[in-house]
Amino acid sequence: MDLISYANDVIDTRRTDVPTNRVNLELSVVADDLAVVEAFSHSWVVRTADGLVVFDASGEATGQAVVRAIRGWTDDPVHTVVYTHGHVDHVGGAGAFLADAEAHGRPRPRFVGHTNVTGRFARYRDTNGYNTAINRRQFGPSRRRNAGAAVGFESAFLPTVTPDPDVTFATEMTLEVGGEQFVLRHDRGETDDHAWTEWVGRGVLFVGDMLIWNFPNCGNPQKVLRFPAEWAAALRKMAALSPSLVAPAHGLPVSEAHRGELVLTSTAEALEHLVREVIESLNADGTMEDAIHDIQVPDDVLALPWLRPFYDEPEFVVRNIWRTYGGWWDGNPARLLPARQRDVAREVAALAGGVAPLVARSLALVEAGDTRLAGELIEMAALAAPNDRSVHEARSAVYAAKRLAATSLMAKGIFEAAAFQSAEAAGIEPPTFTRTRPL
Ligand SMILES: [Zn+2]
Asked: Hey, which of 15, 200, 231, 293 would disulfide with 181, CB 3.0 to 4.6 Å?
């Protein structure tokens, strides 16, 4: 089945038994002079009389294969590469496009992006160690072997060959290439440097990560703040254009205006709902703790194939919104100027008569299905007795259970890292996990 029919079927039937975020590195021609290579991220390619305009360079690990796939379609020079934003899975493949130009003896492509991309790149260079570590944890040791999800950890987090944009814009810019006109607009959403583009006369929107075919990546626990309210507003602007095709950098293309409006509007509504609920909670002098436990997105919304919480999840987005409008204090006065967690853990273990009761209760809670409470107790045991192998053996099992109970890749990655860390401390075989759901 061709890509558009496949995507239409998923949207029309809401089916969730087939992959929506494919990394098959195959090129599909979806309309006249328009193709996409499904990768991590995708590259969307427009053929013009003066050469190709490419939206996103894909990541370091997939860039070469993406260029090869494009070369299987056309030998036209690459005129312009638009960074939809500066995340490494969208810019890390730029080196492959530079190498392609050099191999053909052609001038290098022009790189275009929002003005904040340059600052993002500088931040990545400043925080190289941190970003390398958190992405390794986020994407998980077991996933690093999967080429599809590889992010290129071997050298710098941002590959050193990645060019800053040659042309930047702040709010809106029109590009003319080979008789085709593209209007680039900036809105904040997943990032502060997004550019989404309208291909004038064709009704095609290249939206970057404004649509990722997962619940919006808007609460990432290890990364900088995201912008859910502005994200929703941008989606509404896109829907108002009645696009003939929404071309996201992850997931499936959304063809015809009625599907575009459905997918864009339902995503906007989910974000608006969370923003509204968190603000209501803040205004009622609520606590972040109550907000993260009480505020939810309805299950039927999370069941939509483009909104499943397999990457980020609503609870993390609630925290992001809370931090946007409020402070970092969680409402517990003891934690304003807190004791060290290990000192608290030692006190509790002493009161309990040692770490053994904490470990036993934690394992019992796992059996009973309360992995949240189980995590709290096993963490206390490990903090109170950091060199106790039996504690780490149990901790590895508890986090393996938490990993299995988690839906989002972000939670899975962190729990998996903890399970592996304790397996190593206990001198036991690390637990094994298989991917059970499409990303
Ligand atoms: Zn992305």
From this structure: 200
Beta bridge partners of 183: 174, 198
Q: Which CATH superfamily, name and number, covers 3-269?
A: Metallo-beta-lactamase domain (3.60.15.30)
- CA 262 to centroid of chain Cα atoms: 22
Which of the following CATH numbers is that of domain 339-426: 1.25.40.880, 1.20.1250.20, 2.60.120.20, 3.30.70.3270? 1.25.40.880
How do residues 326-381 score in pLDDT, each as one tens digit? Answer: 999 988 999 999 999 999 999 999 999 999 999 999 999 999 999 999 999 999 99
Number of H helices and number of E strands within the chain?
A: 16, 13
How many A from CA of 41 to the centre of ligand 1? 6
- Model confidence pLDDT, tens digit, residues 234-275: 999 999 999 999 999 999 999 999 999 999 999 999 999 999
337 Cα to the center of ligand 1, angstroms: 37
CA of 151 to the centre of ligand 1 (A): 11
| Interval between CA 180 and ligand 1 midpoint (Å) | 26
185 backbone dihedrals φ, ψ, rounded to 5°: -125, 150
